[in-house]
Amino acid sequence: MSANKEIRILMLQEGLSIAKMTKLINKKNSLNYTPDGISKKLRNNTLKFTEAEIIADTLDYDIVFVKRKHSN
Q1: CA–CA gap between residue 47 and residue 65 (Å, rounded)
Q2: In the chain, what are the domain boundaries?
Q3: Long-range pairs for 15-20: beta carbons < 8 A, 24 or more residues apart
Q4: 20 in Cβ contact with 65 (< 8 Å)
Q5: Over the stretch 14-48, which tens digit does the pLDDT of each residue have?
Q6: Lower Cβ count inside 10 Å, N or C end of the chain?
Q7: Contact 18/11 with Cβ under 8 angstroms?
Q8: DSSP labels for 32-50?
Q9: Distances (CA, A) of 51 to 31, 35, 47, 71
Q10: What is the pTM of this model?
């Protein structure tokens, strides 16, 4: 699943709109994102990993890499 879909799921779970999430991001990180900018990045699948980290941190989530289990 893409980071964009994961972020949209987190937003739903947290009951946040893009506008509310953007306000939280900007307040916590002293940034200047706009809801339209975040929306475009999610829609166009152009969100940078560092931006995904900022969003996850703002929502109190961790991004975790897990080694795949391969069956032989």
Answers
A1: 18
A2: 3-58
A3: 16/59, 18/42
A4: no
A5: 999 999 999 999 999 999 999 999 999 999 999 99
A6: C
A7: yes
A8: ---HHHHHHHHHHT---HH
A9: 11, 14, 6, 34
A10: 0.84
Residues in the chain, total: 72
- 58 and 28 Cβ atoms separated by less than 8 Å: yes
Alpha-helical runs (H) found in the chain:
3-14, 18-29, 35-44, 49-58
Residue 16, Cβ density class (10 Å: 0-12 exposed, 13-18 middle, ≥19 buried) = middle
In the predicted structure, residue 62 carries a pLDDT above the cut 90:
yes
b/e per residue, 34-63, with b = 16+ CB within 10 A?
eeeebeebbeeeebeeebbebbbebbebee
Whole-number percent of the chain with pLDDT over 90: 85
